[in-house]
Every structure is written in C-alpha cells, then in structure tokens.
Design the sequence.
C-alpha cells in the first residue's frame, strides 16, 4: 500500500468541466496538508476534443507531474484509449458503463482495477439533476472513497468555490459518489491519501496568478493586454482584482495598442505592464523598441507556446529566447528574466518592476504555458522580502537651477525622471534620437553619446546584480565530483528537480544550474559552473538549443550534451532521467 | 498663465515655408493661452511625419512617438493621470493608414483626450506618396497611374464610431481653428478635429487655393443631431463644410471606473500594497 504518493488523471471532452474537477480535487488534498502539483492539457477549441488534468499528490514537496498516473477518471472512451499506457501497473480506472466498456484483457497492467459507476444515471435518477457536468463531482466522491481520504476537505472547498445553490448540488453529488463506491467497490485500491496533521497553511495557484500577485504587490496600477493563450489567465486575474486594488485593467484593440498604452501610463509615472505570447509580441516589437529608446519602465510577460506562427496555441515551448533577446531594431538595453517555478514568478515579477523603474528600461518576464497554467501548492509568499525601488523620480516641484533635462547624460546612464505635472519641469520624450532635453537630433556626436548612455545602464545594472548578490542563477547540488551538470532555464526546472530525485534513488548524482537572468547574462556564474562540471547537459524545450548558443556566445564554450523536446509537451521526469542515464 | 513666448522652444522650425502646419501650430498655442493652461499640465503626443515635429516646437510636456500610435499612447497617459490635459497630433497617413485600427476604438472608448489630425492628403516626409485621404486618380510617385481606391471619410467614421466631438478645421483659417481647438479641449471625452493642412511641396492638387474655393463654415447646424452630422460629413466636392459636425455628452471611460474616478494612478502610494485578501482566496 502506498500512502500519500499518488497521481490522478481526469480526462474528457472540452467543456466537460475537467479543469474545475481537477482543481477541486487538488485543493481538497492541499487543505489536508498534502503537497500538490497539477497540470492541464487542452486543445484550442471550446467543445469536444480531448482535455486532461493531472494532479500529483504527495506528502513531500513536488515540482512536476510524473510519467505515470495511478488512477484515471475517464469521462469519455477516448481518455481510456489515449491514457491506458500512462497507468501504473496497479492503477485503476473509474468509468461510466454507459460510455465505455473497458475490457481488462486489453490492458498491460496486471493488477488493473476497473471501477464501473453509472455516473450519468446517478445524476439523473438519484440527484434528479439535468446538468451532466455534476457527474464529475460524483466521480470525485468515488475517488476519495478509494483513497480513503476524508470527504470533509472536498466539502469545504465546494462550499468555498460555488454559490450556495450549486454548492448544495455538488455536496450531494460528492457524497453520492462516495457512498456508491463504499457500497460496491472492494477496499483494496493500492493507494491511500491521509491528511497531514498540523501542516503549514499553503496556497494553491498557477504561474499567471503568481505573476499577477507579484505585479499587484509591486504596485502595478495599469495593465493593458489583449487575450492570447497562455497569457490570458493573467488578464483575467488582473481584471478580477482591478477595483479592489485601484488599478486600471484594459483590453484594447490589440497588442500594439496594449504596449503603447502601457508606455503612455509609464510616461505618466505609473507602474505599467502588459503580457502576450510570441505572436502578440511580434506586434509589440516596435513598442518594445520605443520603450528602450524613450527609456520608459514597462514590464512585459511573454508567455511562450509552441510555434512558429500559430503553431500549437495551447501547448508549451521555450523557442522564443533568441527572439526575445533581439526583438526590435537598433541597440537598446533590456532585461530578460525567466522564472522557473511559481515562487520565482512572484518574486521575479516584483524585481522586474524595480529594475524597470530604477534603470528606466523594458523588462521582459519570459515564461511559458507549462509554467503559467500549472498549479502548485506552496508556502504563502513572504511579502516583506522585497522592497519597492523606484529609482530617481522627481515629482512636485523641480528644484534644479538649469532647465530640466529628461535625458541628462550621467555616469550610470540613468537620468532623474521627472513625472509630467512636476512644476518647473518640461518633460519631453522622443522615439527619435534626441538630446538631453528630449529634442530631436541627428547630430553624430549626440547620437553616439545617447546610445552609449542607454547601453551604459545595463553595465551598471549588471554591476548591481553582482554587488547585491541577486540570484541571477541558482545551483542545486554539490559543485564537484558529480557525474554531470544539468543546465536549463525557465519551466524545465520542475521536471529536472524531479528527475534528479529519481536519479538519486539509483545513486546517480548530478547537479543542476538554473539560469534565471538571460539578459544581462550571468557570464561569470555560468563560467564558474562550467569550470567544475564533468559533463554539461543542456535541457530545453526547443529544437535548436538556444541556451547552448547563448552560453557559447558569452563563454566561448560548447555544452557536451543536449536533451531537447519540442512537441509542445513538458518533460516528464522519468523520461528525462532515462535520457540523462543514457548520456552518463 | 502661460505666454506665447514661454510656449516657444529654441528649436528651429524645419517645415517648408508656407506649410499648412504653421497654421495649426499658431492656432494651438493661441488656444492654450486662451484656455489659461499651464505648460506642466499639458502633454502633447505626436506620431511620425512632418506633423510629428510639433513636439519640438511647443514648450510643454511632450511625447514624440512612433508611426500610427498616437492614440494608444495618449490613452495610456490620460488613464494614468487624468489631471494632465492630453492632446494628440497625428498625420493623415499616421492616423488613417498605419494607426487606423486605433481610431474607431479611441472614439468608442471616449477617453478624455483630444486628437488633431494634420490632413494634407499625402505623405510629405517620405517625399510624396498617396494616403487614404488622397483623391482617387491622384498621381504620386507610388501611384504613377493614379490612386485607385476612393478616399477614406474620417469624419463620417468618427461619427459612426461614437466619437463625442467631431470637427473639421482649416489651417488657412487659424482663428477658426483656434476656436475649434478650445472647444475640443474643453469637451469632456474624446474630441477629434481633422484639419485640412495643405502640403505646399508635394500636394499639387489640394492646395490652399483648392480648399478656399470649396470650404464653408457650418452655421445653423444642429451639432447634437447625429443624422444631420452624418449627412454633412458626406458632403464633398464643390462645397466642403468645416466646423463642429457632432457633439454629445457621454460618460468618459474613466467615469465608468468608480474605484479610481478622477484619482491619478501615478499619485497613489505603492510602498506597501496589501495582497493578504487575495492570498486568503488561494488557501
């Protein structure tokens, strides 16, 4: 019997309420003190097709899904067909005999348990409901019975998330499913969940929500974005919090308008943000360049999905790194930060706003579908950890003797930023090359000085990163005597940490360098790790290993091996550990 | 109160002698003085084209942006800080070609900004090509056999896009234009003035003379009557009306946001934002 180490897959058509049910299940587990990781796989359509939700529950911290699940809730026949290979040998399937008649002969799993429950019939006859989606909750009741997990947590969650009338129906449904299982099924399912007493309180959220929270905590007051998967969740989150947090959240006519509005708001002195995915970012490129040229502090979350062009709109990738680093014409400074987990999404977003204002430049938070739409249970954020740093801002009355110069040439390249409405200061900005007052210029000396000034900001920012020992990279494991060093960026972090756990069980010890800052690139830190690495293995969700080329660009060194995946799906830790073993 | 001298900048004006832009520049400065605005409370936004240089020529806060994006920039500024008076300047190519998609949405949204379009019916700064307001058959370097499509009607478009202040001026009549600009800035909501602004170097057809022969001022026109306004907006040819076509009072975008009302986002304290309530919902 396995206690508190369990994965479930809930599968069905789009529109069948899969995500809602997965969310309910996961949160009920978290309320019992368990650790949870959830990921959803869905297609770009509203009805039909195939969606599935994987929730992994554990007594200890979890960073990603595993390669196998232990129980499948099949809300259609396709779920069984597609996922029977993902089922562990002693797993089970919950299904409605009205939809499916799985024959245990057809499965490789020797000890497979088939749990047939007339979900639709229970909804119709017992609960007297017409809404078929209620069957999901009935199935959840069955799941909790098999796992011997206290129903109280799911009942609490149902009361929390549904309106009273809907909650009442769902409470009946979950009990009906539970009772049916208690009555009809053998009590020999291999997996059990048990609540953990006196567990620390945790929160359950996805990357979009963590970024939104980070932005709100950072004092973002203006958010403009056009919907595009997988960044849309952030728009929803910001819009839901618009009034309580005194923000303006606006969905304009497109991405071009969104970034220009954000730049306008930043010019007026507000912390402003936008988000999109690769396609939308193409449209934002001209705006990005203008933010660089006019030195406007904006934060952009670029949420990668599988391309090129429309590609796989609802699947994940890390193929836009080079694009993000180089987008827009000319040379100007930008910061590119790639958080690797939910916590980093929060703190790095707060940090992004500080860099944006302190150095007056665009900051890109580079994420992807897997990071933004997967949920994890984590400790509540330490909201005191990061202070607001706005850099040099002038409001009220400008007290300088000379006329105010918006683009004053300074040692660090950063000019004191008067906000419009400051008395005695005329704030003039221009996307054309300009002099210190913001007047257009085509003068060669001034052009050189201004380009130097803007680029210099990045030099000072890099210096500050080093002096304050900001975590531009993170290192896991011991530096020396290991069999290999994994190097990655962004959302591959979760599966890598899980793969390392699996390898450790076989006494294979590897260490891992996570690169968080892609620009400015933490050259010294990466070089240090390369110096000590026995073998380097780059892990990325792209075809051309863009991180390898970046490391080579800065260190003149090649990586030894690459593990690349570009089918839109994240790495599974078992697959990854197998690949690592093959290399070692 | 600001004086004309204080509104001047040290920058040498590089528009062609006799350019229609001069009329707009002087009308605008006079309007600011008439309205008694302070320099620090004004932000002017411009796009790309000859008109764009206006940010260098008026000594107020200014943002010389990129081609076609005057409206979203101005929108962001005004939404962030409603205490600023935000006036956008755009060219016909800037606003009606490259930035056309922003035009109807800005009108619908009714953010309290003013848009002044320098409409010379040609691309001047790129040395003379056709734009969407060029006359059909108009021959330029990019249309040597004549422009093919009918001209865009921005006034009619603004009216049907729910703009709350729609006017047309002529840079050859700066006094009249000044009165339009004053009315537009005073108007609460999105106010828009299309200004005939002859390009003396490249537009051989739509000259000062051409306009003078045709334009007449709207008088005895009921500005709150949308149908009448639309009818007038379609008038083109031997007689072309200038003046205020349409005007209505409608709540501005910000007036639909009860949580911020007239508060400046830029004045809000952000030192210690409280997110505990949201955190609570995630438990």
Sequence:
């Amino acid at each position: 019997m396995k206690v508190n180490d369990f994965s479930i897959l809930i599968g069905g058509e789009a529109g069948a309420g899969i995500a809602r049910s997965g969310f309910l299940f996961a949160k009920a587990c978290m309320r019992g003190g368990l650790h949870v990781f959830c990921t959803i796989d869905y297609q770009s359509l509203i009805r039909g097709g195939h969606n599935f939700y994987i929730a992994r529950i554990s007594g200890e911290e979890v960073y990603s899904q595993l390669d196998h699940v232990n129980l499948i809730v099949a809300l259609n026949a396709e779920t069984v067909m597609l996922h029977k290979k993902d089922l562990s040998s002693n797993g089970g399937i919950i299904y409605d005999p009205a939809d499916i008649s799985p024959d245990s002969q057809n499965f490789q799993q020797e000890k497979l348990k088939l749990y047939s429950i007339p979900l639709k019939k229970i909804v119709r006859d017992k609960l007297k409901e017409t809404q078929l989606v209620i069957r999901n909750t009935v199935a959840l009741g069955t799941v909790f019975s098999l796992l011997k997990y206290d129903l109280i947590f799911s009942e609490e969650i149902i009361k929390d998330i549904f309106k009273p009338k809907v909650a009442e129906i769902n409470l009946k449904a979950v009990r009906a499913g539970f009772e049916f299982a208690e009555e009809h099924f053998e009590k020999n399912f291999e997996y059990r969940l048990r609540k953990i007493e006196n567990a620390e309180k945790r929160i359950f959220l996805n990357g979009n929500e963590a970024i939104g929270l980070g932005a709100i905590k950072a004092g973002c007051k203006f958010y403009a974005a056009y919907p595009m998967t997988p960044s849309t969740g952030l728009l929803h989150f910001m819009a839901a919090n618009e009034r309580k947090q005194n923000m303006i959240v606006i969905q304009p006519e497109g991405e071009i308008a969104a970034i220009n509005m954000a730049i306008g708001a930043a010019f007026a002195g507000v912390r402003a943000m936008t988000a999109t995915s690769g396609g939308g970012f193409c449209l934002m490129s001209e705006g990005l360049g203008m933010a660089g040229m006019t030195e406007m502090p904006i934060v952009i979350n670029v949420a990668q999905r599988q391309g090129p062009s429309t590609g796989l709109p609802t699947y994940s990738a890390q193929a836009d790194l080079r694009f993000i680093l180089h987008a827009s014409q000319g040379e100007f400074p930008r910061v590119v930060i790639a958080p690797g987990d939910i916590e980093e999404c929060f703190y790095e977003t707060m940090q992004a706003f500080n860099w944006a204002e302190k150095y007056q430049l665009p900051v890109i938070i580079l994420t992807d579908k897997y990071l933004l739409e997967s949920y994890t249970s984590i400790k509540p954020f330490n909201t005191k950890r990061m202070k607001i740093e706005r850099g040099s801002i002038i409001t009220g009355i400008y007290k300088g003797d000379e006329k105010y110069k918006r683009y004053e040439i300074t040692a660090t390249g950063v000019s004191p930023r008067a906000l419009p409405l400051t008395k005695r200061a005329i704030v003039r900005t221009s996307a054309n090359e300009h002099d210190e007052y913001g007047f257009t210029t085509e003068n060669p000396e001034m052009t050189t000085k201004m380009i130097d000034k803007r680029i210099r900001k990045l030099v000072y920012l890099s210096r500050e990163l080093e002096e304050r020992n900001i975590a531009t990279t993170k290192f896991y494991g011991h530096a020396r005597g290991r069999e290999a060093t994994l190097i990655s960026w962004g959302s591959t972090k979760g599966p890598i940490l899980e793969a390392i756990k699996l390898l450790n069980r076989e006494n294979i010890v590897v260490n891992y360098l996570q690169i968080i800052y892609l620009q400015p690139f933490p050259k010294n830190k990466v070089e240090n790790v390369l110096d000590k690495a026995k073998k380097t293995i780059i892990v990325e969700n792209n075809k051309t290993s863009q991180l390898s080329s970046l490391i080579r660009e800065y260190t003149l060194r090649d990586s030894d091996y690459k593990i690349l995946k570009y089918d839109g799906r994240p790495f599974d830790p078992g697959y990854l550990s197998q690949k690592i073993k093959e290399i070692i | 109160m600001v004086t004309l001298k204080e509104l001047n900048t040290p920058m040498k004006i590089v528009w062609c002698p006799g350019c229609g832009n001069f009329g707009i520049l002087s009308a605008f400065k006079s309007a600011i003085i008439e309205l008694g605005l302070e320099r620090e409370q004004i932000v002017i936004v411009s796009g790309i084209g000859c008109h764009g240089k206006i940010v260098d020529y008026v000594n107020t806060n200014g943002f010389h942006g990129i081609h076609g994006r005057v409206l979203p920039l101005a929108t962001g500024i005004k939404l962030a800080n409603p205490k600023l008076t935000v006036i956008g300047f755009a060219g016909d190519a800037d606003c009606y070609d490259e930035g056309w998609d922003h035009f109807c949405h800005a009108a619908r949204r009714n953010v309290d900004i003013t848009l002044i379009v320098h409409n010379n019916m040609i691309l001047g700064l790129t040395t003379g090509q056709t734009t969407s307001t060029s006359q059909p058959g108009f021959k330029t370097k990019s249309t040597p056999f004549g422009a093919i499509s009918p001209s865009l009607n921005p006034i009619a478009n603004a009216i049907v896009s729910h703009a709350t202040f729609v006017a047309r001026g002529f840079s050859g009549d700066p006094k009249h234009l000044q009165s339009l600009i004053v009315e537009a800035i005073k108007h609460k909501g999105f106010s828009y003035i299309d200004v005939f602004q002859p390009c003396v170097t490249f537009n051989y057809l739509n000259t000062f003379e051409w306009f003078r022969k045709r334009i007449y001022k709207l008088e005895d026109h009921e500005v709150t009557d949308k149908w009448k306004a639309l009818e007038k907006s379609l008038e083109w040819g031997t007689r072309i009306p200038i003046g205020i076509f349409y005007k209505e009072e409608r709540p501005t975008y910000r007036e639909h946001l009860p949580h911020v009302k007239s508060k400046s986002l830029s004045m809000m304290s952000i030192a210690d934002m409280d997110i505990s309530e949201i955190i609570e919902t995630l438990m």
Summary: Chain A has four domains: 2-192, 204-378, 393-457, 473-583. The two ends of chain A are 33 Å apart (CA to CA).
